[in-house]
Design the sequence.
């Protein structure tokens, strides 16, 4: 029998491939993405990742054993490294991230993650957080394999998520799902909802570009 993490991903595979063809992701792959959309995305993703790191920390504090505690802390460290990439993006694009306010789409996603982390067991929390990591690893690898690394400024984004070190973090998080999550409707629902939030996140960036006349 396959691992729970694999079954959860397979249930959302069609959605993942649809996101691979999303105008935002396609724009990154082809190095044609409207800069307005990317700047908006980077600013909002920074806020999202801060909540993502907090959710890891909550799960660590609630961990039933040392293995989970240590794993969640290591994963939080990976998010802090990712935030360094966003800082370099912000500097290169002239953004002032401290002045950015979370959009309704960002709040919808972060509120869900933090509420899950506070109210659920660590297995359910891991299941709610896995789609972000798994999807980005999938997108980075698929773009790199199909098209190669795109031109800057999007090449670093693809290289980050196609890198073996990032996929190691994905595997670590999926291992927590397999070890601590129940094969319940709540777990499946959390996973699927997170995938939907991911798609909405990219769509919000494209909508912002359209509203700005980009």
Sequence:
């Amino acid at each position: 029998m396959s691992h729970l993490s694999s079954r959860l991903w397979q249930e959302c595979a069609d959605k993942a491939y649809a996101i691979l063809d999303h105008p935002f992701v396609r724009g990154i792959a082809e190095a044609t993405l409207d800069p307005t959309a990317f700047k908006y995305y980077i600013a909002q993703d920074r806020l999202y990742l801060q909540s993502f790191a907090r959710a890891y920390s909550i799960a660590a504090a609630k961990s039933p054993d040392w293995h989970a505690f240590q794993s969640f802390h290591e994963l939080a460290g990976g998010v802090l490294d990712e935030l360094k990439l966003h800082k370099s993006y912000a500097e290169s694009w002239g953004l002032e991230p401290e002045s950015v306010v979370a959009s309704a789409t960002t709040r919808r996603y972060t509120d869900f993650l933090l509420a899950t982390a506070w109210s659920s067991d660590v297995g359910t929390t891991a299941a709610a957080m896995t789609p972000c990591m798994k999807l980005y690893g999938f997108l980075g690898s698929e773009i790199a394999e199909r098209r190669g690394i795109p031109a800057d400024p999007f090449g670093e984004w693809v290289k980050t998520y196609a890198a073996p070190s990032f996929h190691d973090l994905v595997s670590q998080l999926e291992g927590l799902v397999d070890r601590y999550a129940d094969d319940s409707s709540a777990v499946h629902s959390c996973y699927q909802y997170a995938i939907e939030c991911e798609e909405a996140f990219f769509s919000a960036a494209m909508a912002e570009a359209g509203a700005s006349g980009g």
Notes: The chain has ten helices and no strands. The chain has a mean pLDDT of 93. The radius of gyration is 17 Å.
